[in-house]
Specification:
Elements: E1 5-11, E2 14-21, E3 23-28, E4 31-36, E5 42-46, E6 49-55, E7 58-72, E8 75-85, H1 91-108, H2 114-134
Parallel strand pairs: 1-8
Antiparallel strand pairs: 1-2, 3-4, 3-6, 5-7, 6-7, 7-8
Length: about 140
């Protein structure tokens, strides 16, 4: 096995992941990015989406939402609002959240209320990311 990078995923409730991995792929606001061992240092904002990482033949996915990422000294650290593994996601609840968000977006399209439209868009992004991770 080649070199690895230390992956840490931290939420307000504590550490979610703390292990050595081969590769990390994440959703940054500037676009999705991948990180291997000994990557150059950088900082990035993180958007709602799927964080994937591999260790040998094992591939794991997390739904993450909002935060920051730092790569430094062969370690990648994510400070995110939330992180959920597929096994933790209630698919029925995520489907209901998706339907509610789509309904609110349809209603917001008829109005000029940008605040509620943005909240509905974020809720929809979270629901879709949860469903994607749960179905892997």
């Amino acid at each position: 096995m080649g070199q690895q990078i230390r992956l840490e995923v931290v939420t307000p409730t504590g550490a979610k992941v703390n292990e050595d991995v081969d590769i990390v792929n994440a959703p940054g606001y500037g676009g999705d990015f991948g990180v291997l061992a000994n990557h150059a240092p950088f900082l990035s904002t993180i958007k709602i989406g799927t964080l994937t990482y591999e260790n040998g033949k094992k591939r794991e996915s997390l739904m993450i939402s909002g935060g920051f990422c730092e790569v430094s000294n062969n370690k990648i650290t994510f400070l995110v609002e939330s992180a959920e593994a597929g096994s933790e996601i209630d698919v029925e609840r995520a489907m209901r959240a998706k339907e509610r968000a789509e309904k609110r977006l349809a209603q917001a399209a008829q109005q000029t209320d940008n605040f509620n439209r943005r909240r509905a868009e974020i809720a929809l992004q979270r629901a879709l990311a949860r469903l994607k991770v749960a179905n892997r």
